[in-house]
Specification:
By secondary structure, the protein is of the alpha/beta class. It has 11 helices and 8 strands. Strands 1-2-3-4-5-6-7-8 form an 8-stranded parallel sheet, with helices on both faces. The two termini are about 30 Å apart. The structure holds (1E,3Z)-4-hydroxybuta-1,3-diene-1,2,4-tricarboxylic acid.
Length: about 300
Amino acid sequence: GGFEKTPGWLDWYDGPATPTFRLPAGAVDAHCHVFGPGAQFPYAPERKYTPCDASADELFALRDQLGFTSNVIVQATCHGADNSALVDALRRAGDRARGVATVRRDVTEQELAELHDAGVRGVRFNFVKRLVDRVPTDALEEIVAKIAPLGWHVVIYFEADDLPELYDFFSAIPTDVVVDHMGRPDVTKDPDGPEFGLFLRFLRENPNVWTKVTCPERLSVTGPRALDGEQDAYRDVVPFARRVVEEFPDRVLWGTDWPHPNLKDHMPDDGVLVDGIPRIAPTPDLQRRLLVDNPRRLYWPGTSFDPSASSE
Ligand SMILES: O=C(O)/C=C(\C=C(/O)C(=O)O)C(=O)O
């Protein structure tokens, strides 16, 4: 590969704790990535960062250590629209992983069929300016028209300030829509304020819109982002995530976001991230919906998880 990591790049947390919170059987890590390895799956020339390698085998080792049954692996911008690392990881996982790919407007039916066969069930539209150049809306509409017949959904990653401008486009997407990281709310603002209020209105007005209640370590503004007692930095994110879980219990997903790209001054222990789940989903019923029922309805539709089946 010979890819130089972006200066200051933080590798994922080495030796995460085994969570004290026991994940329910069938739990899905619904937002995570694989990076390269660059020698086998080169990073995209148009990328805006170069990560550390983070292989499927390392992702699956984390899955097993944390107690997840399955993963939804999301294409990261460092691979652009080259989904080969994602497809390789999906094939290695068999039925224990599904994927969300990045495609361009000229993607062919054959390419989409191959992605579907590998386990891809959605595409990702990224609007975060530090990650991608803006894709024209008509190109995105063309992609939606191509993937909707496959029953796929659209994952959207945007910053809260951009929601007003994107609101009508997002509301017109006919498929299920999944928002990454609650649209990155400014957690220094009031959860009852107009900014997060627009996000809540977006979910209230569009019953096909789901959100991941993920990435407190990206959103928190207090101290080292760890759930270590009084330094708990989740304090300022929990009110936002918990409100969404309680109002939309059937449209929320959770994920580790391993290997946590582009964190600048801290790297969360993934086991500690899992231990934070009961603070945003405080009952076993909400935890089961967040971690098992919702991701399986979206990514393994028509199947019900049989806890007695072997997970191999
Ligand atoms: O992993 C995340 O979801 C967040 C980030 C990166 C990406 O999503 C990506 O490169 O595709 C980020 O905020 O830098």
